[in-house]
């Protein structure tokens, strides 16, 4: 049988003599013949599929499902193309969920700069920071929360206590048992100027709603509550302050921003040492000193901020000693260690 090239050559030689003069010698006819002789063009380049990811409000992408039965070399190419696309889209971080059955792909991801963030049961989560400067990705949960219960008999002015069988402090009295819940530990702090009743607030850059809130952020590992409060306020607003008290605690389980873990949100009261604002443009849209009464009544805020603003107004009017949970440092039962305890002050100052 004829090949396409041979057939084209025959037609190009004899067809002009068989066609009418005008048609055979037309430019269009000759172009058609050349294309016919050249045969089919090259196959169109296949477009490689990208990894499917969910974008978040912080500028990150989360990939929860990897392709089944994919080789390491193919996954490396797909991951490279996906990272290139996400960088072009302005994404600054990638969260990659790798199941135990596909753990071989974690090594491939590591060659592209990913590191382990955490692992739980049969799933490892890898992360990659693609934004400017040092990574601002949050760490994983680090704390356990102990809950103590007091049974108080008002008629007899007595309290129920127990001695733990396995306690390292023999004969020590403890109330209730330990509830183990791994949490992400965060601080929000209200910097209050008691002289004029104004409070420092910000609008987060990465929130879907531009609501006024108190400056806040995650605690570093081994960092005390007060130290976190002072550090975060300065980093976000440029205002220096000192820790005064713990005001409130918010607890939320299955927190979307904490990898589905529980979230403990500690709200602190601070006093300003400086007043000039120089806020972080990477995290905040705006930062201002607002009147507490205005903050308590505005609709442009979050429910927790509004409630704390009203609590602070009460403290300004009646005295902060009625709302403050002050901190004292006390020796722990473990030799050489100390812990911080927060509670309302009594009339004796204890």
Which properties best describe this structure?
17 strands; 5-stranded mixed beta sheet; alpha+beta; 350 residues; single chain
Detailed description of the structure:
Helix content is 26%, strand content 29%. The protein has 350 residues and is of the alpha+beta class. The strands form four sheets. Strands 6, 9, 10, 11, 12, 13, 14 and 15 form an eight-stranded mixed beta sheet that branches. It has a five-stranded mixed beta sheet with strand order 1-2-3-5-4, with helices on one face. A two-stranded antiparallel sheet has the order 7-8. Helix 4 (72-88) links the parallel strand 2 and strand 3 (93-99). Helix 1 (4-18) runs antiparallel to helix 3 and helix 4 (72-88) crosses helix 5.
SSE blueprint:
Elements: H1 4-18, H2 21-24, H3 27-38, E1 54-55, E2 60-63, H4 72-88, E3 93-99, H5 104-111, E4 115-120, E5 123-129, E6 143-144, E7 151-153, E8 158-160, E9 182-193, E10 198-204, E11 212-213, E12 216-218, H6 225-237, E13 241-252, E14 262-272, E15 284-291, H7 292-297, H8 303-318, E16 326-331, E17 338-343
Parallel strand pairs: 2-3, 9-14
Antiparallel strand pairs: 1-2, 3-5, 4-5, 6-9, 7-8, 9-10, 9-12, 10-11, 10-15, 13-14, 16-17
Mean pLDDT: 80
Q: Strand count, sense and closure of the main sheet?
A: 8 strands, mixed
Structural category is alpha+beta
**Helix run count:** 8
Instruction: Report the C-alpha radius of gyration, rounded.
Output: 33 Å
Q: What are the secondary-structure elements, in order, as H or E? A: HHHEEHEHEEEEEEEEEHEEEHHEE
Helix content: 25-40%
Number of strands: 17
Shape: elongated
- Termini, distance in Å? 105 Å
Strand content: 25-35%
Question: Low-confidence segments, ≥5 residues, pLDDT <50?
Answer: 21-25, 43-47, 166-183
């Amino acid at each position: 049988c004829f090949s396409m090239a041979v057939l084209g050559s025959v037609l190009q030689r004899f067809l002009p003599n068989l066609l009418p003069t005008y048609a055979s010698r037309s430019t269009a006819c000759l172009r058609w013949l050349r294309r016919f002789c050249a045969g089919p063009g090259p196959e169109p380049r296949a477009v490689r599929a990208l990894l499917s990811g969910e974008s978040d409000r912080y500028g990150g992408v989360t990939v929860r499902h990897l392709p089944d039965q994919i080789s390491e070399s193919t996954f490396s190419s797909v991951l490279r193309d996906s990272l290139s696309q996400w960088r072009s889209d302005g994404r600054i971080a990638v969260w990659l969920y790798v199941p135990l059955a596909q753990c071989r792909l974690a090594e491939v991801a590591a060659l592209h700069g990913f590191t382990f963030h955490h692992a739980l049961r049969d799933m490892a989560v890898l992360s990659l920071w693609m934004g400017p400067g040092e990574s601002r990705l949050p760490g994983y949960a680090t704390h356990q929360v102990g809950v103590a219960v007091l049974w108080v008999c008002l008629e007899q002015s007595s309290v129920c206590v127990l001695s733990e069988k396995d306690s390292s402090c023999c004969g020590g009295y403890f109330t209730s048992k330990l509830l183990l819940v791994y949490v992400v530990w965060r601080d929000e702090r209200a910097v209050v100027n008691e002289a004029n009743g104004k409070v420092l607030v910000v609008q987060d850059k990465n929130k879907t709603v531009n609501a006024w809130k108190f400056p806040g952020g995650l605690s570093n590992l081994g960092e005390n509550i007060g130290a976190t409060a002072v550090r975060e306020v300065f980093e976000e607003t440029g205002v220096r302050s000192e820790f005064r008290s713990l005001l409130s605690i918010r607890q939320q389980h299955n927190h979307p921003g904490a990898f589905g873990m529980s979230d403990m949100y500690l709200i602190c009261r601070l006093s300003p040492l400086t007043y000039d604002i120089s806020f972080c443009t990477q995290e905040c849209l705006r930062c201002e000193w607002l009147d507490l009464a205005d903050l308590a009544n505005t609709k442009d805020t979050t429910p927790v901020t509004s409630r704390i603003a009203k609590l602070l107004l009460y403290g300004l009017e009646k005295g902060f000693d009625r709302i403050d949970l002050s901190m004292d440092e006390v020796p722990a039962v473990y030799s050489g260690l100390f812990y911080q305890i927060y509670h309302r002050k009594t009339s004796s100052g204890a």
